[in-house]
User: Fold these one by one.
Assistant:
Number 1:
Amino acid sequence: MSNSTNAQPRVDSELVPGTRIDDYTIEKKIGEGGMALLYLAVDAAGHKRVLKIPRGSADADPASLVAFENELRLAPYLKDFPYAHMPVVRESSRGHYLVMDYIEGVDLWTHLRDKGCASEREAIAMAKKIVRALAELHARRIVHLDIKLSNIMISPNGDVRLIDFGIANHLDLPDHIYESFQEPKGTPAYIAPEQFYGVRDEPRSDLFSIGALLFEMTTSRLPYIDAQTALDVVKRIRRTPVSPRRYRPELSEGFESIVLTCLENLPNRRYASMQNLLEALEALESDQRIVPTATPSPAKMDEVLPYADHRGVLLRFLRRAPGERVDRLDDLKRWIKEHRQQRAALPYRIVVALDITEDNERVNALNHRILCEAMRFAQMQRSMITALAVLPSQDVGMASGEKEMQIQNAAYQQARARLTDVMRAVGVPQGSYGINVRIGETVDAISGCVSDYAADLLIIGARERSALSRFILGSTAYRVLTTIECPTFVVQERALSKRSGQAVADTGPPPARGTSASYVAN
C-alpha cells in the first residue's frame, strides 16, 4: 500500500477569501468533512476549481484521515474518469492536497429534498446514468463501496458525477482501508451485507447500494433501518427487505423486481454486473408504460403488505431449492467463506509489531532490525507487511467523552505518522506494507491483528530486561509465543551491541502457511 501521500498541508484555521495556495486563489469554503475542508478556488487561467485540504487538527477522526489518504492514492486512476471530479494530487511546501473540477449543481439528496420523491420514469432515467458511471468505474477495477444520494452530483443539464472515493477500493492495489481498519466503513443503511463482514473486493456490493438508492428515490424511505450496532446488523441481514410498492402501490412489478434483485442478501443473487442492471432498466423503460409521478401514499412500517407484495415475496422464497431456505445470516457467512476460498492467492502476510512508545537509540535500532528481517522474508515470495503499533489506553483523567475521543485520535495520528516514518527510514517499498494502530493490552492487540489478517508470520522484538523484572512482570515476547498460534520470529535486543541495525545471518526461508514454529535471531 502506498504511503507516499501521508504528509498533507495541515490548515490550522479556515482559509479566508483571497488566500493563495500555489496557483490557486481561495474564493470561499463550500464544505467540510471529518478530515478535510473544501474550498472553491480560481486557478491562474480563471477556471473554477475545488481544493480539498486536510484539517490542521491533530485530533481529527482517524477514519477520515485514512479515507483522505485513500482518495490521494486513487486520484491518478480517476484523473480521466468522465463521471467524477477529475481529481489531481498537488504537492506544496505544506504537503499534499486534492484539486478537483468544480461541478455545478446539487447532490441527489438535495435534489429530491427540493423536488420530492421521483416518479418511476424519473428514477429509471437517473439510475441509468448512475449505473453507466459505475459500470465504467468497475471497468477500471475500482469499487466505490459508498454509493448513496449525497455522493451523486447532478449538474444543471442533468449529467451525473460520482463523488467521495474515500473508502473505494482498487482491486489491483493493496486495500488501504482494509490495511488500516477491520471495522466496516461506509453508510450502514446503504452498504451491502457482505461489507459488514469485511468483504471489499466485490463489485456487486455497489449493486446493493443502487437498490437502496432506487428505493429511497421513489419512496423517500430506506429499505432498512440504520444499522449502528452489531445486533442491528444481524437483524438487518436476517430481515427480508420490504417492497417499494408498499409505499408506492403505483410502482410497477418490473421496477419492484429490479429493486429487490439489487437488494438480495447474497451477491450471486443480484445482477451479475452493472451492465446487466443497465440492460434490465432499459428493458423496463422500453417495454412498459410507466405511471407518472404520484404523491406517496402514507404508510407505517407495521402495516400489512398489499397482496401483490405478499405474492412477490412468496414467489421469491419458493423459487429457492429446499436446501437454500436457511437462515439469511448463515447463508451470507457461507457465501463469504466460499468467496474467500475462490480469491486469487493472497500475498504471504507478515505482521511486525513495532515499539513506538519510546523514541531512543535502543528502541529505534530494534525496530530497524525487525523490519530488516521482515524485508528479508518478504523478498522470498510475494508478501504484504502489516506494521503494527499498540498504544496503551490513554489516561484521560476527568475528560468528557468528546475530549477523550480527541485525545485518542491525536495519539492515533501521532502513532500512524511515526510508523510511516520508520517504514520509510528502513526503505520498505511503497505498496508492500500497511499501517495498523491499535489501543489496548499489547498481547491481546497483537493476537487480534494476527487473527484479523490471517498472518502467516509474526515478527516481534524482545527487549533485554533484568531477571527481577522478568520474574515480576513476565516477558511480552514469552506471552506472545505461548498464547498466539502463529509462526513467530523473535529479534532479541541483546544482539544489538554487536550488530546494531543490521540483519542477522540467514535463518532459512519463512515458515509455510499453516505451520507452527518459532525462531529467535540472536
Note: The chain has a mean pLDDT of 82.
Number 2:
Amino acid sequence: MDCAQVEWGVRWFLLILAASAFAQPAAKLWWSFTPLRPVTGSIDGHVRAGLVKKQLVPNPRADARTLSRRLHFDLTGLPPTEAEAQLFLADPNVEKLVDRLLASRQFGERWARHWLDVARYGEDDFHGTAPHPYANAWRYRDWVVGALNDDMPYDVFVKAQIAGDLLPNRERYLGGLGLFGLGPWYYGISQPPQARADERHDRVDMVTRGFLGITAACARCHDHKYDPISQRDYYALAGVFASTAYKEYPLAAAAEVDRYQARQKKIAAQEKTIAAFVEKQREQLAEILSFRIADLMMGTGAVDADLTKRWQAYLAKPDEDQPFRAGWDKTRDRAAAEAFGALVRQVAEEKRALDAENAKLVAKAAPPPTKRRKEILPGNYDSEADFNPGADIPTESLERDRYTLWRKMFSGDTALLRVSKIDDHLSGEWKRHLDTLRAELASLKKTSPAAYPFLHGVAEHEEPIDIELNLRGNPERLGPKIPRQFLTALGGAALGQGSGRLQLAEAVVAHPLAARVMANRIWEHLLGHGVVRTPSNYGLMGERPANPELLEYLAARFVALQWSPKALIREIVLSETYQASSANTGAGEKVDPSNRLFWRAERRRMDAESMRDAILAVSGELDCTVGGESAELDDRNLRRTVYARVGRYQQNETLALFDVPSSSASAEHRAATNVPLQRLYFLNSDFIKRRAKALGGRITSVERAYELLFQRAPSAREKERGEQFLREASKAEYAQVLLSANEFLYVD
C-alpha cells in the first residue's frame, strides 16, 4: 500500500468518525461535552491507577534542592535566593514553602503571564502602516495580576472578562473587560463589513477556544468538519459581539474628563486646519515648480536644495516605472528637458480634470443620508465614516504609465516636486498666518489638562442586533438572520438579553468544559504538559486525555474548591506526582517515553520571562516594583518581563527568539525550540554581558557563584575548573559562562 492510499484511508476514517459523531444525540456526542462525573480519590491515586495498567511505578521524590527550585520557578517565576534555599534545606517543609509562595505578590505576576498568552494580550494594533498604541492597556494586565493574587474564583474571573460591566459591584471587574476592549481591532485594514466580521471572529475564537477548548471559529464559512458546531451556531454567537460596543471607562471625575475631551477637540481641529493649509501650499508650490523641471534636470537656476538632490538621484539611473523619460535619457539636452516638463504639466492637468469628474460621480452615487448604526473603535475611529468614504464607487483613472508619472512627481512626501520644508518658501501674510496657527496650537497643548486614566473595555451597544449568516463566510453575501444563542451542542441557551454577554458568561462557566479546560491548563503549567495535550481543542481532532479519571478528578475538585486557582495549585504541588524526580528510568522510557502518564516530572527549559527575570535576580539588579505602565524591553529595563510592552505590530525580538507567541491570536501553549540563535544570544547580547558584569561583582569565589546560580555547592572538579578559569579570565566572563549553563536555564 503506497502513501497516497494510506492518506485516503485516514481521510475516509475521519469522515466516517465525524459523521457518526454528528449522528449522536448532543448528550452522548463527545466525552468532553458530558457532565462532570463525581470522582473520588486523590491525584496520586488516579496517577498510580494509570501507571498500574502499564505496569509502571512512579519516580521517587526529588531532593530538597530540586523541589525548592521547582516550586519557586513554577509558582513565582523566580529562583530562590540564597537565604530561601538555605532555609528550605534546613527545614524542608514543602507545605510551608508552598503557602508562602502562593501568598507572595510574585505569584500573580507569574501566573498572569500564563493567562495573557491565552488572552492574546497586546498593547497596540495595526493601523495602516503604523502601530496604534493603547496607552492604558497595562491596566488589564495589572487587573489579571491582582485577580490571581487575590485568588478570584475562576468562574468570576471568566464572567468579569466577558461581562464585568453587568455584574454587581462592577467597579471591581471593569478592568477585566480589556480582554475584548484591547482587540485585536482591524480598523481600516479591509472594507468595514469585512474588518468588523474579522473582529467578531476573534471574539468567538477567544471565548470558545480560550474558555471552552472548542474550535467554533472553524464554522465561520461552513459547518464544522468534525465537531457538532454548525454555521448557524457560529453566527448565533457572533451576534453577541455585534451587539457589543467598545467603551473606555474613565478613572477620573466627569468634569476632568469633559475638560480634557473639549480641549482635545480644539487641538484636533487646529491640527486639521494647519495640515490643510500646509497641504494646499505644498500642492500649489508643486504646480509652480513643475515649470522649473527643465532647470532641475539640467542643474541650472536656484531651486530647493532638497528637491535638487532628489532629481539628481532620480536621473542617475533609468526610470523603469514609466517610458516618458526616454527622450531625455538619449540626448540629455534642454529641449528634451522642456518636453518632459511639458508632459508632466499635461498629465497633472488631466489628473485635475479626472478628480473633478470623479467627485461628481461619488456625490451622485452616494446613498441618501440615513441613520447609521455607529461602530466606534479605540481612538474614536468611526468604522464607516473614517474608512475612505466613496472608495467602493467605480471611478475613472489615468492610464497606468501616466498615473505612475503623476504619482512620482506629485504624490507623497518624497515626490520629486513636493518640498519637505514649506516654511522656506512662504513669506508675508502666508508665513504670518501659518506661524499664528502654530502658536495657537502650541498654546492649546501647553494649557491642556493632562490625559486622564481609563480602562479599555466593552459595553452594551445601543442597538443590539441578530446578524445574518454570511454565505461562505463573506460578509457581503448575507443569508437569514440568526437569533443569538449559545452553541447548540453545549445546551443552546438563548442569549437575547441586551447584547447577550452576561448570559454568555453564565453559560460558559455553567458548562463542564470550563472546569476541564482550566484545570488542565493549571496542570500543564505545573507538570509540563496537560492531561489533554491540546489544551484549546477538546473536540474530535483534539487529543483524548491520557488519564480520563485524573482529568475528571481535577475538574471536579476545581469546582468543589469554589473555583479557587490557588487551592487547586496547592493540591497539585503537594502531590507525590508533582514532587517526583525527573530522572529517566529504563522501564518508563520504554513503555511511556513521552510521559503521558506522569511517572516522572518533566525537565523544562525556563520560558523567556523566567529566564530573563532569573538572570536579573542572580545579578542583583531585578527591580521588583509591582504594576504600573509598561516599558520597552531594552537593556535599561530591569523590571520583571511581565511588565514589558507587548506589541502586535512588532513583537520584541528577544522574546520571540525564546518562543513567546504572537499576541494576535489566543495561544494554547508555547512551542519549545532549540536553535543556534538562542545560544548566540548568550554569547553576544549586550543584555547578557551587562548582567554578567553585575553578577561578576557579586562573585567572591566559585562556591559563592554556585550558591547564587544553582543553590548548591560545586563539586571538587567544578571548583578546580572554576578557579582555573578565574585565573585566566575575568569574573564577568566566568559569570557569562555560568549564566548560559543548562543547569541554570533548565528546571528539573
Note: The chain has 31 helices and ten strands.
